[in-house]
Amino acid sequence: MTKTTKTTIFMRFPSPLPLVPILGLLLMFGCTYTLKIKDGRTAFERKQFSTAIPLLEKEFNKAKTRKEKGQLAYMLGDAHIKTGNDEKALQWFENAGNFNYGPEALKAQAFTLKKLEKYPAAREAFKNLGIEIGSPYEYRKEITACTVAEGWLSERPNNGWTTDPAPFNSQQNDFAPVWYFDNRLVFTSDRNMGTGKENYLWTGNKFMDIFITDINSASPQIFDSQWNTTSNEGTPCFNKTSTEAFFVRSVGAYKGDDAFCKIYQTEKGRTDALWSVPVPLPFQKEKINYFHPVLSPDGNTLYYACNDPEGWGGYDLWSVQKNPKSETGWDEPKALPRSVNTPMNELFPVFDQDTLYFASDGHTGMGGLDIFRTYKSDKNAWSPPNNLKSPINSGADDFGFLVDPKSVAEGKKASKPGDLIKSGYFTSNRKTEGAKGGDDIYRFEQRIPPPKPPKVDTVPPQPLAYKLILEGYVLEKIFAEPNNPNSKILGRKPLSGAVVKTEGGKKQSFTVKEDGFFRMELAENTDYAFNASLPGYLSNNARFSTKGIAKDPANPVQTFEIEIVLDQIFRNKEIVLENIYYDYDKWDIRPDAEPTLNRLAEVLKQNADIRIQLGSHTDCRGNDAYNQTLSQRRAQSAVNYLISKGIDATRLSAKGYGESQPAVTCACSSCTEAEHQTNRRTTFKVVE
Length: 688
What we know:
Blueprint: H1 40-45, H2 49-62, H3 66-82, H4 86-98, H5 103-115, H6 119-133, H7 140-155, E1 161-165, E2 174-179, E3 185-189, E4 209-213, E5 221-222, E6 233-238, E7 244-252, E8 259-267, E9 279-280, E10 290-295, E11 301-306, E12 316-321, E13 334-335, E14 346-352, E15 355-360, E16 370-375, E17 386-387, E18 398-403, H8 405-411, E19 420-428, E20 440-447, E21 467-479, E22 489-494, E23 499-503, E24 509-511, E25 517-522, E26 527-533, E27 537-538, E28 540-545, E29 557-568, E30 575-577, H9 594-606, E31 612-617, H10 624-644, E32 652-658, H11 673-679, E33 681-686
Helix pairs in contact: 2-3, 3-4, 3-5, 4-5, 5-6, 6-7
């Protein structure tokens, strides 16, 4: 499952770390799993990273060309990232660069250097990467973050925080502890004593299970046989009386598909030791990961993380209120505001009274996931998150911050340097003295630090002037092959001359210059919509909301950022639509294909003057006539779906190509499954 990169389980779900848009996550155990295989490339493609590494090493040693060695070295680096070995990953990414793998190798090196807290080298790598892809814009934030993180490290010796590994860690992964009613800790682990005989091929360890331990014990036990299965389970939460619980389990949406994480609910009586059969929460969608549930202090609202495309991007924090009067027992889920969520990943929410702690790689941090805190200033508004800095945060992934409520009560008496303010636990995959596994649970203490020298402020205090500022950029994609929209995207760069129009509050219009930049002041409690356009490009919309953003006296001027990417119009060139899959021998649109087609429908609504052709291609298996008929039916299904979304039928046409135009040419009997998948594609092209 996940931890999410631990970019993915809810657990920490593995993620594409430095390699895809989710830039800073690392090994969050993925919720997906697949069958055993013997080929390194296929093992990698199927997320069997622990299996892939030794096979890929053998294939690397046998490779005869620099191109092949570069590809294999990059895959090895990524596999080590996904299994939590950043040092080895860096070596392989450097190898990939030496074998001319390209900008992706330098990108992976830069992010891995940042995770390893090698900030000067990371800063230089990001600068070089921006130059290489032709866009210093793309990594400007990472360069700044490296400098900020260096400053936080220098402050560490005198900030009053200390951390030590917990005594109950194993050689495997242990993470995300929560309190049980008897003051014991419940946590997630893939240690050897887990349920089932099989190992999880992502990590090479057992599948995730839920454990319980005394805080001074080194002998945790399986929590409950009703909860733990031979699949992945983890990251539970409990109500105050421990009679209601929520946890995550990985399940498949379709036969033969990868598994996705879903939140399950279970209950027991106050005197009954048996938990009810866990059931998934009713509001969850298919093909979306849900994890890291936590109840609000009053027990009436459930917070969680998920990658719903209706969110702000990546994994967001959501909340949903209990409602006994509704059909499902729940209201509609709502994403937390942009003061908390970013276009990247927010995960592992935990409450300490009115303070919400969570992990993020979207706010300015030290490398991977960092721990932040925020609080509600009124019913719906959240304060700007504060980074807990070093030593709680590090270049590695840090998450799952849990405060000991007893220490808070004692901390109210703290008055002089050295007195305890609070203590508790958190999780990190940092490689420090005493660390045992990939993810370890750490105990922390916060004490009153030594006093700082007084500052002499000669500037008289000014009355606070609260402002909300939005800085926007209009961008275009940088393709590895400039005239091929299906080639790798290396990054984005500012797009000059685009016109941005705003709706919400005061209507405004901006024409951006070479930096693609516009800036505006926002009104409170307002939804904004933006439309950017430029001849030769598809118009695109974006949204922003100041609802739920609280005023912060420590930061009276809050600045946010929005990016609007415009796609160049490549007339009469097929563009592959990602994540369009069909069941065997069928052509109906599956639910997991709907988000992609919904986005295409929005593009067509925003660009009413274009017509497109939907194309469908099959792989080489099956006879020509069968494949031709099947592909035509699939293309027509996509057209019919777009018509159902309000697109005029005269703007759409369907074309089935069968197996006549493979994207990858290979002998059918020897094509890999990845090559077959590449050839089984749905496309669109602008025809006028």
